[in-house]
């Protein structure tokens, strides 16, 4: 029996992926999201389908919440576990959290790093799959502005913060060659990510009707999870859906990668 940790499990791609994996008798799903009620209902659905699941409520909106969640997961999982980073936030306005940092920068970048740290340090993880976004090609990082959202954009901030975590996970792969790491664009999927009120929100909802269903994406992710290996030791490969592609140019920029590396280390050391 192996453990698979799935964040953002209560809705969208995460919810669909949990159900897609429910028939795997040799995997226990640890389902992570903020909504404990929805998680418990999902865990019950997984078990009705013959799987094993444990609801682990947790909040990636603050660094304290991420630390608490990571410590709990490190106690629950056995070595050889897979971690699927699926939780994400696409904000419509700039909001600072309790750490004084922009919420998407925390939820999409800093908090997942904090959450996974005790799992890596205790040798619990064998594989990490990051559900990223093709929109990282539009991302950028400004060390003085991005962490606090002074460069906030209702479109660009999602791209920026997804780029940040993708770059950070490349460093994680280098630092932990024993862990198989892959970062991917999952597809253009019809979920409530980025939903907003008003005419823009209505227009977006109409456009999304042509996008693929979460169940289609979940089947794709299940096939990727079934692969024996994703990346060479010490490296993290980039997939567009199921096909390996070269990393986008923005993810290869040495100055951006070093600026993010330094800023991330400074922020985590001071909080």
From TrEMBL:
Claim: GTP-binding is one of the keywords in the record: no
Keyword vocabulary terms for this entry: Oxidoreductase
Organism: Corallococcus coralloides (strain ATCC 25202 / DSM 2259 / NBRC 100086 / M2)
Name used for this protein in its record: Short-chain dehydrogenase/reductase
Pfam family, one: adh_short
GO MF: oxidoreductase activity
Entries under Gene3D superfamilies matching the protein: NAD(P)-binding Rossmann-like Domain
SUPFAM superfamilies linked to this entry: NAD(P)-binding Rossmann-fold domains (SSF51735)
């Amino acid at each position: 029996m192996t453990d698979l940790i799935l964040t953002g499990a209560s809705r969208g791609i995460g919810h669909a992926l949990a159900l897609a994996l429910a028939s795997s008798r040799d995997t226990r799903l640890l389902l992570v999201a903020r909504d404990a009620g929805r998680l418990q209902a999902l865990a019950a659905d997984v078990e009705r389908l013959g799987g094993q699941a444990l609801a682990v409520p947790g909040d990636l909106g603050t660094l304290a919440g991420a630390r608490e969640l990571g410590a709990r997961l490190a106690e629950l999982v056995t070595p050889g576990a897979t971690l699927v980073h699926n939780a994400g936030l696409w904000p419509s306005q700039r909001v600072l959290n309790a750490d004084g940092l922009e919420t998407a920068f925390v939820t999409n970048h800093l908090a997942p790093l904090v959450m996974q740290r005790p799992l890596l340090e205790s040798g619990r993880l064998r594989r990490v799959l990051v559900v990223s976004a093709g929109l990282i090609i539009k991302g950028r990082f400004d060390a003085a502005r991005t962490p606090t959202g002074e460069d906030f954009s209702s479109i660009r901030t999602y791209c920026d913060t997804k780029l940040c975590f993708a770059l950070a996970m490349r460093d994680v792969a280098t630092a932990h060659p024993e862990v198989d790491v892959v970062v991917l664009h999952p597809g253009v999927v019809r979920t409530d990510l980025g939903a907003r009120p008003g005419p823009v929100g209505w227009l977006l909802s109409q456009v999304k009707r042509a996008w693929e269903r979460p169940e289609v994406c979940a089947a794709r992710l299940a096939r990727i999870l079934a692969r024996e290996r994703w990346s060479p030791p010490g490296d993290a490969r980039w997939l567009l859906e199921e096909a390996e592609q070269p990393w986008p140019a923005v993810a290869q920029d040495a100055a951006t990668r070093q600026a993010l590396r330094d800023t991330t280390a400074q922020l985590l050391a001071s909080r």
